From TrEMBL:
CDD domains: BCAT_beta_family
Cofactor: pyridoxal 5'-phosphate
Any Pfam family the entry gives: Aminotran_4
Pathway where it operates: Amino-acid biosynthesis; L-valine biosynthesis; L-valine from pyruvate: step 4/4; Amino-acid biosynthesis; L-leucine biosynthesis; L-leucine from 3-methyl-2-oxobutanoate: step 4/4; Amino-acid biosynthesis; L-isoleucine biosynthesis; L-isoleucine from 2-oxobutanoate: step 4/4
GO BP term (any one): branched-chain amino acid biosynthetic process
UniProt cross-references to InterPro entries, sorted A to Z: Aminotrans_IV, Aminotrans_IV_CS, Aminotransferase-like, B_amino_transII, BCAT-like_C, BCAT-like_N, BCAT_family
Name the UniProt record assigns to this protein: Branched-chain-amino-acid aminotransferase
Residues recorded as bearing N6-(pyridoxal phosphate)lysine in the entry: K185
Organism: Helicovermis profundi
């Protein structure tokens, strides 16, 4: 096997890097094959593939971490397996056994050992699993054949030089319909988010905040991340809705707030005109873990949370605990870390 990479771990962003191997499995005649590792990073499919025309595809995102002892651990991969199956079901794609999913993740990480960033570098190995509908089709109906693939790439820490707050603006666009596909990770949700994101960035914000599609009064998502707020009496609050994508980072933060930091946690509506109940707020997702929210602009009203330049204490504690668990420095709850052999 190839030995070293020339990657500068300290200067990685979030961009495509071709690793040594990717995993690919085909679904045909009603079943998945065993899959295999390959070096080619191109996928050749029929021009009639349903993923190309009707958005029959879904994806996942998770990370692997190098621990102090040199071992490598995946963070909660069974949660991604479950969520991927929920996505697949919603758009009539075949499910994958959770064990098969996790074994495939392990295989591809192991094969790309030299791309796993060193402990302490702040960089991690990002895994991108996906399922796409393929084959010669043209009518609007589920494909008969599918690909389940996983590729990996090393990614840098989201905030270089430490976490710092960013500002967001509410959007008049909706990312999902009340009973649509907002709660599953399907590609169709993301094409529609490109323009709202672009417009928010043009106005000088990190991203937009989506309100609930029915009444536009409650916070749903912060770009492609979930929202949380910390109340004055130290409660961890995160929105509840059928059209939010259930973030695994959020699920983990709910647990960490309660079990590690002894906070009360609540899932409920978060009204955009009642932001003053929070002294800190953040966006959470696999890529950044937590992006502290400095301020939210809504209808020309700017609401500042803790500070536009400093990170709040609770947010900092949550972040440090989370990273500690992921990197193996703190004891993880049972089943959260799946070691690569
Ligand atoms: C993936 C995603 C998230 C974050 O989920 P994690 O499991 O924490 O990475 C949040 N919102 C949307 C819309 C997403 O696609």
């Amino acid at each position: 096997m190839k030995k070293e990479t020339s990657i500068d771990w300290g200067n990685l962003g979030f961009g495509y890097i071709k690793a040594d191997y990717n995993f690919i499995s085909y679904y045909k005649d009603g079943k998945w094959d065993d899959g295999n590792l390959r070096e080619d990073d191109k996928v050749t499919i029929s021009q009639g593939s349903t993923c190309l025309h009707y958005g029959q595809q879904c994806f996942e995102g998770l990370k692997a971490f190098k621990h102090k002892d040199g071992s490598v651990g995946l963070f909660r991969p069974f949660e991604n397996a479950k969520r991927m199956n929920n996505s697949a079901k919603r758009i009539m794609m075949p499910e994958i056994s959770e064990d098969f999913f996790v074994e495939a993740c392990k295989k591809v990480v192991k094969a790309n050992g030299r791309f796993v960033p060193p402990y302490g570098s702040g960089a991690t190995l990002y895994l991108r699993p996906y399922i796409i509908g393929i084959g010669d089709n043209i009518g609007v109906s589920p494909a008969k054949e599918y690909i389940f693939g996983i590729f990996v790439m090393p990614v840098g820490p989201y905030f270089k030089g430490g976490m710092s707050p960013v500002n967001f603006i509410t959007s008049d666009y909706d990312r999902a319909a009340p009973n649509g596909t907002g709660s599953v990770k399907v590609g169709g949700n993301y094409a529609g988010s490109l323009l709202p994101h672009h417009e928010a960035v043009e106005k000088g914000y990190a991203d937009c905040i989506y309100l609930d599609p029915l009444t536009h009064t409650k916070i749903e998502e912060v770009g492609a991340a979930n929202f949380f707020g910390i109340t004055k009496d130290n409660k961890f609050v995160t929105p509840k809705s059928n059209s939010i994508l259930p973030s695994i980072t959020r699920k983990s933060l709910l647990y960490i707030s309660k079990e590690y930091l002894g906070m009360e946690v609540i899932e409920r509506e978060v009204y955009i005109d009642k932001l003053s109940e929070f002294i800190e707020a953040g966006a959470c997702g696999t890529a950044a873990v937590i992006s502290p929210i400095g301020a939210i602009m809504h209808k020309n009203n700017k609401h500042v949370f803790y500070s536009e330049t400093k990170v709040g204490e609770v947010t900092m504690k949550l972040y440090n605990t989370f990273i500690g668990i992921q990197t193996g420095d703190l004891k993880a709850p049972d089943g959260w870390i799946v070691k690569i052999d």
